[in-house]
Amino acid sequence: MHYYRTHTCHDLRLEHVGAQVRLSGWIHRKRDHGRILFIDLRDHYGITQIFCEKDQSFFKELEALRLESVVTVTGRVIQRTLATRNPKMGTGDIELSIEDIVIQSKADVLPLQVNSDQEFPEETRLTYRFLDLRREKLHQNIVLRSAIIASLRRRMIDAGFMEFQTPILTSSSPEGARDFLVPSRLNPGLFYALPQAPQQFKQLLMISGFDRYFQIAPCFRDEDARADRSPGEFYQLDFEMAFVTQDDVFSTIEPVLTGVFNEFANGNLVDTYPYKRIPFQQAILSYGTDKPDLRNPLRIQDVTEVFSGSDFAIFAKAIENGCLVRAIQVPGCINQPRSFFDKLNNWAKDTGMAGLGYIVFDASEAKGSIAKFLTQAQINLLKTMTHAQEGSAVFFVCDKPQVVWKYAGFARTKIATELDLIEKNAFRFCWIVDFPMYELDEVTGKIDFSHNPFSMPQGGMEALETMNPLDIKAYQYDIVCNGVELSSGAIRNHLPEVMYKAFSIVGYSAETVEQRFGGLLNAFRFGAPPHGGCAPGVDRIVMLLANEPNLREIIAFPMNQQAQDLLMGAPSCVDVSRLKELYLEVKLPPEKSIV
């Protein structure tokens, strides 16, 4: 008989009745019935009920053990009576009569309960993450994560991709976030950077003659935490393909994602491919975001024309000053009480808007404080532009062009949520395409890359030389599911002269480009194939499939909101001798101290 176990705590069934077996696991629950002590013994696979009687020599020792102590028990499998069977457990038809026990490890008083769904503070959960991970829901989420990654890997290999690992210590790159820097001991004063993405290396693999690469890639960005973004580290399904167009990339990854989502959707609907494609500018106008949730049926319209020169002075004057008016038509609002509209207006003000005006259309007239300022012709135009019907309400957002789209997007989501209009139990995908190559930095007023600096501009060199940079589109794309951006990707710029020109527009000299990206540029000069790829976020895919709103629930060892690992105590101080080896000295700002 094996020293620790002959079976797992999920294995035993009626066919094992009468057999002598050995199990090892954690004490999940205890129920003392006086003369009999019942214990739920748990391991990674499941739970088995075991019991011992009071006259057995080890009864008191077992009775004194705290929950989460680890034991090995040997005993006989017994069939439960009909009245005591538990159909909710796989092992619910049997129990184990203990004949011998070995205590492997005694547990101290628990800082959090493993056998309940009770909420505990984040600090407690992360400090004792090893206990938190024993809890059923979180434990299953991590198992799900493993299964999803295995499925992604299998599907990519079946699609003809080869898996390669790219360096973790590399050079700094302008990926849009701060790098994590690593000082070099052998090269004093110089630093490595942890990769924000394997961008340059996967392009180099294509130039090296490999046709299809993928990797479950760790990426590192020194940025603030969000519910859907872990501080510091995240993983993505990184892939690249040679001799492909944008359409080729889409048709390759869509079956992979659809297959994985169907495999783990747990009965939810999954979009079939090809996925809907939405140009960036249309997404901003119609959805108020470049990450639209297509489960939300509401759409946004520009109705500035209706109010331009109208008697509704608030909007008319704002339009004269360069503002725009966006409208959201919502069917079936005729019976909503006044308090519903007042609540939305107060929410809008709290969000930073001037308010959320509205008009309601009934059979005979348009109602609301705004309607009386519009002529019948303007009302008819509004109905035509928004497709308003009898019973519809039309909500309005008026503001400057740089924010009106965002506020309209907030309102679209809020209204649909309040009215419970968002489709349930479905995964809806779309591609956002035709991203602008450049954008204007609102703080500095300078032109910068809007997305990936290594993308091919639509129109190539001619566009860079003849067009207003803010009008140039790129072969860049995002894949979005249920309002969550899963991935960014692009057809890459593989021509040195185009790369020099693209970077010069944002202020990089040829010398700087050579210094920062010399390895990639040098490779371009020796025959680079057209290539492109994408990188769906593994963490966000698991979040969606696990139906979890926070990444903390699908990552084994996450950091807290302050980018601290409370379990391992990172980041931490290092000895002065180590700093000397790296030719570094710590100089803190006055208000900071090392603790």
For the record, give the distance between the C-alpha atoms at the N and C termini, rounded to a whole number: 52 Å
What structural class results from the helix and strand content? alpha+beta
Rg value: 30 Å
Number of helices: 17
Strand percentage lies at: 15-25%
Main pleated sheet? 8 strands, mixed
Can you list the strand order of the major beta sheet?
A: 6-9-10-24-23-22-19-12
Q: What general form does the structure show?
A: globular
The residue ranges in which pLDDT falls below 50 over 5 or more consecutive positions are none
Describe the protein.
The structure is a single chain. Helices cover 30% and strands 23% of the residues. It is α+β, with helices and mostly antiparallel strands and 595 residues long. The longest helix is centred in the N-terminal third of the chain and has 23 residues, at 136-158. It is globular.
